[in-house]
Amino acid sequence: MIVIVDYGMGNLKSVENSALFLGKKVKVSSSPATIKKANKIIFPGVGHFHRAVKELKKRKLFCLLKKKIEEGVPFLGICLGMQLLLEKSQEAPGVKGLGIIKGEVKKFTGKELIVPHMGWNQIVFDKESKQSKDRELFKGIKDGSFFYFAHSYYCKPKNSEIILVTTAYGNSFASALHKENVWAVQFHPEKSQKLGLKVFNNFLKIC
């Protein structure tokens, strides 16, 4: 069962529609009992880091999601769903993330930058990434392709080898990560038209 996690935030309907368009049966749920049965998890996100953690804990999903990931269940985090995988965020000092990926979420800085970073931008394949399945999430997608972004913070993982692709906005930042059974993207596949659908389809195929 493919479960899209409902924690009161995120483009749930758009993500669900993308999966349905691809012919995949999915369930949008905030029920711990349902998520326990999931063999694939998609975790969309829009909003504030602290509020998201608070809602996950309120719905008894925070520890459950961490447990499912540690059990090896394939997981795709989107935007804030990517950021919550890290240990902490400058958006919410003192609030702990899931800690699946070592590192911190940082805010864009620079007088020349408009924050939030919003709109279409390019991805660049990271040349340090060494895992054999890394590129499968981007199978059929060309280096330099455009995806849709909407965020004020970006992920800074301690291990650069888990970075799949980067994007330039001021400096270069990680726009997709892969660690074992976990994939995460900073852009919004559900807003990225044909290439976004390809990312969803690739995730569902490789798992």
Give a quick precis of the structure:
25% of the residues lie in helices and 32% in strands.
Order of helices and strands: EHEHEHHEHEEEEEEEEEH
Average predicted local confidence, pLDDT: 94
- Give the overall form: globular
**Quick one: CATH class?**
Alpha Beta
Spatial strand arrangement across the major sheet: 2-1-3-4-13-12-11-8
Summing up helix and strand content along with how strands pair, one would put the structural category as: alpha/beta
Largest sheet: 8 strands, mixed
Q: Level of helix content?
A: 25-40%
Kindly provide the radius of gyration, computed on alpha-carbon positions and rounded to a whole number of angstroms: 16 Å
How does this model look, in words?
This protein is α/β, with parallel strands linked by helices and 207 residues long. It has one domain (2-206): 3-Layer(aba) Sandwich (Rossmann fold), CATH 3.40.50.880. Helices cover 25% and strands 32% of the residues. The chain is built from six helices and 13 strands. An eight-stranded mixed sheet has the order 2-1-3-4-13-12-11-8. A three-stranded mixed sheet has the order 5-6-10, with no helix packed on it. The protein has a two-stranded antiparallel sheet with strand order 7-9. Strand 1, helix 1 (12-21) and strand 2 (26-29) form a beta-alpha-beta unit. The protein is globular, with a radius of gyration of 16 Å.
Task: Considering the chains and any ligands shown, give keywords for the structure.
three-stranded mixed β-sheet, Rossmann fold, 6 helices, eight-stranded mixed β-sheet, 25% helix, 207 residues, alpha/beta
